[in-house]
Please model this.
Amino acid sequence: MIDKQVLKNITVLYVEDEFVIQEGITETLDLFGIEVISAQNGQEGLSIFKTSHKKIDLILTDIKMPKLDGLNMIAEIRKVSKDIPVVITTAHQETNFLMQSIELNISAYILKPIDIYKLEESLIKAISPKVLEKSLIEKNKKLEIEIKINEEKQQIIETQSRFAAMGEMISMIAHQWRQPLASIGTASFNLKYKLISEKFNLETQEGRKEQSLFFSHKLDEIEFYVQNLTATIDDFKNFFKTDKVLIHTTVDNTIKHSLKLIQKDLESNNIELVLNFNSKNLINIYQNEIIHVIINILKNAQEKLLENKTKNAKIEIKSQDLANSIRLDIYDNGGGIKKDNLDVIFEPYFSTKKEKNGTGIGLYMSKIIIEKNHQGKLYATNIKDGINFSIILHSMI
Model:
């Protein structure tokens, strides 16, 4: 229902050649809260409109006028503005006149003598589409601003998530490099020690052969560990690739890529990893994003298990093919999550680890990746003595 307030503060060009009528209607329009610009004939009205059309919201005009009648004035005005609302007043009700009104896109007409209530009703009817259009434009502008703000917030969250993931990855790289670097250090020390202590009798063929075999063995060891370090870097470098390319693969293959990055870290913390791969169906995914989700869930599980000092700590990963989708479950026996928190763990910046600098964006970004970027589903359920994260992705059967 359109309110009478739509007439407040609008500007009407009122064209009427009879002074008494114009004066009376102008007073009435003033009572409605309307600003009136008056003209005595069509020619004057057209001239005013051409110079002030950006200010004028509506035209109220008589038909029969000297110099230029109302309909011809409107025809000329339509060349400037096709959409300006027009209400006409007339003492005639003829078919020919009505057909011309339709052609000129006239909003309403009022028979003379003018009924004030009919006039108010016709003006409201004429101006309402324009007012609603302005309102809609303003709302759209506000909506565009809100969307832009939300997009900027989303970019900030994504950047924070990437930095958080990078920190975790650097920690895992350091852990995975520790053992190979220690082995390289031991091998190089042994080589150096053998040389300095002159353990080999190089004056005999047997001594030279023994030295050659020892050096060859140790250099092979160093080469093996260097290759191990290179492979680790390649795995992490692939994870941080920013190009989004759909990969046609299985979820089991993606899980294996994820475990390359985190399995040793889990094992070194005495966390048993139980794998149950049963998915063969192919999916189209942004693989690095799905790896990000899997690692985030596994890291959360690891931290929970260590924080609670869980005995017989265990993480189970299970995949299975459903009718038209693939389900991945990641379960840990770390005690689960409080029921009150279960509904909000996917909200941005919510964290149960704030005292340990938890960012609260990992699960939020995981949900965005699964549900927005892959049109899948991610949810969590407390079961047994832990929590289970379930991921549903559409298969390509």
In short: Residues 243-397 form a domain with the Heat Shock Protein 90 fold (CATH 3.30.565.10). Residues 116-196 form the longest helix (81 residues). Confidence is low (pLDDT under 50) at residues 354-359. The CA atoms of residues 39 and 45 lie 5 Å apart.
